[in-house]
Structure to design on (315 residues):
């Protein structure tokens, strides 16, 4: 039985309620989330300054030993450099930059090539350093604690600005999963990761962030936010209910991301047939175009502002 996908007459009202709920949460909690992240990021930037001798020792050896400083270095230039811009200017590989920003160095990369590309990155960063933020670079002396703190907060602001959307999205996803958890536990469900195949998941249990295998010839795992096995198994269905928590702060991004869910349901149905039931848990800016697209792909949804609709899934 459909939950909301077959009720276009109430979509407009639900869209308005969903936008209001997201806006209320954003105004109340997002600034604190951002401030907390900014504080942690400032400490991270200060550490990067220490590792590079306050940007006076940006060398291939330092980058190889401490690749995690690269995001700080990118945001220390004028103008700040996006990853792709650094890749182009430094004539380096995108994979190297991505792996470094994840905190390591590609283990199989040829050492001579690695050394040359790290040298290019260092030369590019040094040439573009924002000396207005780091005044000690002009005089050649050591910075005062006040200068270092001021520089760290400026670079941290740049880093947080570049990550603002992911910061908010991650905080919202954690909140959504917490709501689902509280709801399920109120219904007597137990949080318990599945052991073995999904078909063997214990009734009356749920788990978050589960990798679900798909594909017949070449198996791959796709991440699912919430997996719920009802207390009474759905008639004729073997695998649990699969839920994706989705939030959005504007209508543009949802239309860019709507194909993600369609791809997942195609992979799931190709592997599990009609057993696969993918449901979205929505909060925020999801317009009629997005909803119509998902409905056409066979995907239903539950609005966060009407969480009791989960009952219609047999929970």
């Amino acid at each position: 039985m459909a939950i909301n996908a077959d009720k276009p007459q109430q979509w407009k009202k639900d869209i308005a309620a969903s936008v209001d709920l997201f806006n209320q949460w954003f105004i109340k909690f997002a600034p604190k989330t951002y401030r907390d992240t900014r504080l942690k990021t400032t400490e991270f930037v200060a550490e990067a300054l220490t590792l590079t001798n306050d940007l006076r020792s940006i060398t291939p050896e330092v980058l190889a030993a401490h690749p995690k400083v690269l995001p700080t270095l990118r945001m220390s230039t004028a103008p700040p450099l996006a990853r792709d811009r650094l890749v182009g200017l430094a004539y380096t590989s995108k994979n190297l930059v991505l792996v470094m920003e994840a905190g390591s160095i590609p283990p199989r990369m040829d050492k001579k090539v690695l050394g040359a590309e790290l040298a290019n990155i260092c030369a590019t960063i040094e040439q573009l350093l924002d000396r207005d933020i780091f005044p000690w670079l002009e005089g050649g002396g050591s910075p005062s604690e006040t200068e270092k703190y001021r520089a760290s907060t400026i670079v941290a602001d740049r880093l947080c600005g570049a990550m603002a959307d992911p910061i908010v999205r991650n905080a919202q996803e954690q909140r959504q999963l917490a709501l689902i958890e509280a709801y399920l536990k109120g219904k007597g469900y137990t949080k318990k990761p599945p052991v073995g195949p999904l078909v063997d998941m214990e009734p009356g249990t749920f788990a978050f962030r589960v990798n679900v295998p798909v594909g017949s010839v070449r198996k791959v795992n796709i991440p699912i936010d919430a997996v719920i096995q009802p207390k009474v198994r759905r008639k004729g269905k073997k695998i649990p209910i699969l839920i994706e928590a989705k939030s959005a702060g504007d209508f543009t991004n949802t239309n860019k991301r709507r194909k993600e869910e369609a791809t997942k349901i195609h992979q799931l149905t190709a592997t599990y047939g009609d057993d696969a039931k993918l449901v979205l848990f929505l909060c925020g800016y999801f317009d009629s175009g997005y909803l119509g697209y998902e409905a056409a792909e066979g995907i239903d949804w539950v609005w966060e502002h009407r969480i009791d609709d989960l009952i219609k899934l047999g929970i």
